[in-house]
Amino acid sequence: MVLTAIVALFAVTALAFILTFFVDNDNDPFEFVIVLIIFFVPIITLFIGLRPVLGLLTVPDVLYIQGNQLLLKNEEEIKVEDIKCVYIHQIGAAQSHLLYYEMTLKKIPISISSRKRKSLIMVEPYNLKYLFQTRLDFLDCLTELGLSEDKINYSEVRLKHMFIRDNFKE
Fold first, then answer.
1. Do both 45 and 64 map to the same domain?
2. Is 157 part of any domain?
3. pLDDT 10s digits, 84-105
4. Residues 33 and 106 in one domain
5. Do residues 76 and 141 share a domain?
6. What is the rounded radius of gyration, in angstroms, for the C-alpha atoms of the chain?
7. Rounded distance between C-alpha atoms, residue 84 and residue 113, angstroms
8. Measuring CA to CA, which residue among 92, 113, 102, 106 is closest to residue 161?
9. C-alpha dihedral over 92, 137, 59, 64, to 10 degrees?
């Protein structure tokens, strides 16, 4: 998010200076630049930097990959043998569509046993430099840990997935 804010700051500043030369040459351009920065940089930072959370409308689960272990945030281990299936879902249709993963497990961890949704929802770590790329680093890590590729299912993309997400039960 910090990198997004820095890039947005430079982009909005450059755009503001360009606009002041074309629109109004009499006034001081710095007032216009400051107003645009105050207005646009927080909006750009929030909507691009928090894209996975905003796209899902739910907070994804945190899964740490340390060595050959998959750990939840409470350090509860998920064994690769306990993974039933990993579903890959898509939101959007543009080059920068969001992929999120739904992992169903044979043995449900204690930390998620009390909620209605018995699966884990995860997204890739987000970075502005990957805005126009589809990343599948998470799947690469899972296959390196020994997950069979038959357990990875790509969900069918329908017209509704281009605009809205599926409903999650919390």
1. no
2. yes
3. 999 988 776 655 567 788 899 9
4. no
5. yes
6. 21
7. 16
8. 92
9. 180
Residue type, 105: L
- Nearest CA to 70 among 142, 143, 168? 142
pTM for this predicted structure: 0.62
Average pLDDT for 153-157: 77
**Which domain, by its residues, includes 71?**
57-162
**Among 70, 60, 51, 52, which Cα is nearest to 170's?**
60
Indicate the residue type of 43: I
Query: What single string gives the DSSP state of each residue in 103-137?
Result: EEESS--GGGTTSS--EEEEEPPP-GGGTTS---H
Is 99 inside a domain boundary? yes
Place of tokens 């990198």: 3
Tell which of 49, 69, 84 closes a domain: 49
Tell me the mean pLDDT in the region 13-29.
Answer: 75
Does 124 fall in a domain? yes
* CATH number of the domain where residue 140 is located: 2.30.29
**Using CA atoms, how far apart are residues 67 and 70, in angstroms rounded to an integer?**
8
Main-chain dihedrals φ then ψ at residue 91, nearest 5 degrees = -120, 125
**Same domain, yes or no: 14 and 83:** no
pLDDT digits (tens, 9 = 90+) for 26-71: 667 777 778 888 888 888 777 766 666 666 777 778 888 888 888 8
Same domain, 12 and 80: no
The percentage of the chain sitting over the pLDDT mark of 90, rounded to a whole number, equals 7
Asked whether residue 69 falls in the same domain as residue 20, the answer is: no
